[in-house]
Design goal:
The complex is a heterodimer of chains A (about 250) and B (about 140). Chain A has about 250 residues and is mainly alpha-helical. Chain A contains twelve helices and three strands. Chain A has a two-stranded antiparallel sheet. In chain A, helix 2 runs parallel beside helix 8. Chain A is globular, with a radius of gyration of 20 Å. Chain B has a five-stranded parallel beta sheet, with helices on both faces. In chain B, helix 3 crosses helix 5. By secondary structure, chain B is of the alpha/beta class. Classes of the chains: A mainly alpha (about 250), B alpha/beta (about 140). At the A-B interface, helix 3, helix 5, helix 6, helix 9 and strand 3 of A face helix 2 and strand 3 of B.
């Protein structure tokens, strides 16, 4: 257990989980920041606290399940395809904004935060589970560090994303990277890859000629595919769409 | 004389308002003032529609915008200069210029230093961009 902490692999893994989680939680942060706003100022903190607290517990349980599921053959392939899809969707701006009436009671706001978290964190759950590569210690530590950052920094994260929308593109690329990595480590592909001349390291990692990691190569390819497809779809959907709203008020 | 004055809530941007107050007697009669702030649009993310409605986002823009306008409003109130306020949503410089054009303003007042030094360094100054794209005379307040 203790020697686990000393290895480089451990720290890289931990940083990866924290990074993935923070970038991919941008969408959740937006919802938390906006949903809490419809409450009276006094209740805002409480709603964020309870809503996110419950969300954290839910997220950890879901991720642990995901880690267990990802050890089964074929499921990594399914998960990786799902991540590709989510990554591409992230880059295409959503067309329809529903007219949801803002809730001004606390239970409703907490419910909103929770539902949003459930719907929007499928990407995080799969990506974090993949990044953890089977280590529960890594997983829980990573989540425990990054989730509070996202919750308490939700307004800051929202402002950052407004100012630098490229953060969203980076998130999409990261999803593509994790998806590509995950795809080639599916146990079901091991035999096929070995037949293609891929060697495996002692830890069971696929290596191509020259000792390069096949995971990293596929990760980069995945990132490029997601960003390219996402950008292309976004461009096709509508050229240069920008929100043009205005709130006006006269006073003399 | 119709003047658009853009603020972002920072102390620096209020220098532009102060400049207008100091030189209000330059203009014949009281100038007609449009006090404007621009909010960058919230990113549109998949699934967001399930939790956050249009009017909620609208309210967010309004609240944030009002907070940024408040100090400038107090200054104008103090000087008894009538004004209209708007919170615009969109890219900052483009929105300012577009609004000034749409409202047929004669002059745009803008501070040269905005909210953050880092933002300035990374984005290039908003004021510079306004200067570049505007057909309307621009007054930069240093």
């Amino acid at each position: 257990m203790l020697e686990q902490f000393a290895t480089q692999v451990f720290w890289i893994g931990l940083l990866k989980i924290i990074g993935v989680n923070i970038i991919l939680s941008g969408d959740n942060a937006v919802v938390i920041a906006l949903a809490a706003r419809s409450l009276p100022a006094k209740q805002q903190k409480a709603a964020v606290l309870w809503g996110s607290g419950a969300a954290v517990v839910m997220r950890i349980i879901l991720t642990i399940f995901a880690v267990a599921l990802l050890t089964l053959p074929w499921l990594k392939i399914v998960g990786s395809l799902l991540l590709f899809w989510i990554g591409v969707k992230l880059l295409v701006p959503e067309e329809d904004e529903a007219d949801i009436s803002a809730s001004d009671n606390m239970i409703a706001a907490i419910k909103t935060i929770l539902i949003a978290d459930l719907v929007m964190s499928i990407d995080n759950v799969i990506a974090v589970a993949a990044a953890a590569q089977g280590s529960l210690t890594l997983l829980i530590l990573g989540l425990a560090i990054s989730i509070p950052l996202v919750i308490f920094g939700s307004t800051l994260l929202l402002h950052l994303m407004e100012r630098w929308p490229v953060i969203i593109t980076i998130g999409g690329g990261l999803l593509g990277f994790v998806a590509g990595e995950m795809l080639v480590t599916d146990p079901a592909l091991k035999g096929w890859l070995a037949g293609m001349g891929v060697a495996f390291s002692e830890a069971g990692k696929p290596l191509v000629a020259g000792g390069l990691s096949l995971e990293i190569i596929c990760g980069i390819i995945g990132a490029v595919i997601v960003v390219a497809v996402g950008k292309w779809l976004a461009k096709r959907q509508q050229p240069e769409s920008r929100a043009e709203a205005e709130v006006e008020q006269s006073k003399s | 004389m119709k003047i658009l004055i853009a603020v972002d809530g920072s102390k620096n941007s209020l220098d532009a308002v102060q400049c207008l107050l100091d030189h209000a007697d330059w203009y014949r009669g009281k100038p007609e003032v449009l006090l404007v702030t621009v909010h960058l649009p919230v990113p549109k993310l998949p699934g967001m529609g399930a939790a956050v409605g249009k009017n909620q986002i609208q309210r967010y823009y309004e609240q944030e915008g009002e907070a940024r306008l408040a100090p400038a409003k107090r200054m104008l109130d103090g000087a008894r200069i009538p004004y209209q306020t708007s919170v615009l949503v969109g890219p900052i410089a483009e929105s300012i210029v577009q609004h000034a054009k749409a409202k047929r303003c004669d002059l745009i007042y803008i501070g040269t230093r905005g909210r953050t030094e880092i933002g300035k360094a990374m984005l290039g100054s908003t004021a510079t961009k306004v200067l570049h794209i505007s057909d309307i005379p621009v007054l930069l307040v240093k």
